[in-house]
Amino acid sequence: FAPWEDSQQKPLIEFVNVTKRFGDFTAIDNLSQKIFEREFFALLGPSGCGKTTMMRMLGGFETPTEGKILLAGQDIGNVPPNKRAVNMMFQSYALFPHLSVWENIAFGLKREGQPKDQIAARVDEMLRLTRLEKFARRKPHQISGGQRQRVALARSLAKAPKLLLLDEPLGALDKKLRHETQFELMDIQESTGTTFVIVTHDQEEAMTVASRVAVMDHGKIVQVSTPDVIYEAPNSVYVADFIGDVNLIEGNATKAESGVQITWGENTAPLVSTNSDQALAGKRVVLALRPEKVSISVERPDAPNVLRGKVIDIAYLGNLSTYHVQLETGTMVKAQIANTRRVSRRQITWEDSVWLSFSATAAVVLEGG
Ligand code: ATP
């Protein structure tokens, strides 16, 4: 069950035909999007696509050139940053070095002039939430990077914002700690019920933490969905190519019994995809196929889609190996095989002629090429 699929769900944020221009450059292009209460929403896209501009408009550091942004139904266009129920956590954390963890978390509450006992209760609650009780008296330089990240999170949640903006929140942490912290972030988001919007360059991170992911291209959101749909059913070659690793094979689509088949290369059998739109028939298309959906074998397998080629390279990744196979057409196809299937790894090596195969449901055919 996903709460955001419920049409009764109340949007917290609504971008309504928002355009943001810097001079004659359009950074955000007539974008409309809802973000619901309690969502963990990720903005993904290449450098310059407008992610930070979206965050800055939500935070109140930029105003839309056209259109409006609603927060809980109210136009926040002219509401200054400190008057919005929105907080932003920066990658640098910006903790005060001379203040203790406790004082750092209390800072915003004190500035609001809240009563002392109320502040103390709230800070203690935030310390418990982020498991920092033991470190309350320490200064930022006396705790680890992961703990500093939690202080920054505790501080930005102390005033109970409706929306928390996270700009590369885990960028300063090493990979292992980053993974652990991702789960903490998800727990904290869930237990506080705050809406989180995250921008990260780490796609895997976005896919792990977010309940919905929006993929951006040149100031527009081109697909927004749950991480599994974005990965398994991208709506364009752009999205397929941006998220994860993918093989792209160009060809012409014709109608198959179910779905479409693509004809490509000389003397090559058509490739079948049963889960693709038949309206693509007659068009130039691209077949998108994830490397982990491709099997590799010495003997010709009995499968709807088979390709013949030669192993050019094998990248050993510990749990997986990626085989780079050059087809007779010259096209390179990657097959990613779990190393628990040891037999195939021993049997197949560089320069070997192999068969690649994949099921009719494994690939998706998309317009383009
Ligand atoms: P990155 O991943 O590199 O941070 P981004 O997706 O966050 O990129 P933005 O920072 O939103 O991208 O910038 C979008 C576009 O708007 C870029 O081409 C950028 O150069 C431009 N831009 C952003 N701020 C300004 C500004 N104040 N003046 C002029 N152009 C700007």
From TrEMBL:
GO cellular component, one term: ATP-binding cassette (ABC) transporter complex
EC number(s) from the headed UniProt entry: 7.6.2.11
Keyword ATP-binding in annotation: yes
Keyword Transmembrane: no
GO terms assigned for molecular function: ABC-type polyamine transporter activity; ATP binding; ATP hydrolysis activity
InterPro entries per the UniProt record, alphabetical: AAA+_ATPase (IPR003593), ABC_SmlMolc_Importer (IPR050093), ABC_transporter-like_ATP-bd (IPR003439), ABC_transporter-like_CS (IPR017871), Mo/tungstate-bd_C_term_dom (IPR008995), NA-bd_OB-fold (IPR012340), P-loop_NTPase (IPR027417), PotA-like (IPR005893)
GO BP terms: putrescine transport
Reaction it catalyzes: ATP + H2O + polyamine-[polyamine-binding protein]Side 1 = ADP + phosphate + polyamineSide 2 + [polyamine-binding protein]Side 1
Domain ABC transporter: 13-243
Keywords from the named record: ATP-binding, Cell inner membrane, Cell membrane, Hydrolase, Membrane, Nucleotide-binding, Translocase, Transport
Similarity field: Belongs to the ABC transporter superfamily. Spermidine/putrescine importer (TC 3.A.1.11.1) family.
Its biological purpose: Part of the ABC transporter complex PotABCD involved in spermidine/putrescine import. Responsible for energy coupling to the transport system.
Subunit structure: The complex is composed of two ATP-binding proteins (PotA), two transmembrane proteins (PotB and PotC) and a solute-binding protein (PotD).
Family matches, as NCBIfam families: potA (TIGR01187)
Protein name, per record: Spermidine/putrescine import ATP-binding protein PotA
Organism encoding this protein: Pelagimonas varians
Organism lineage string: Bacteria, Pseudomonadati, Pseudomonadota, Alphaproteobacteria, Rhodobacterales
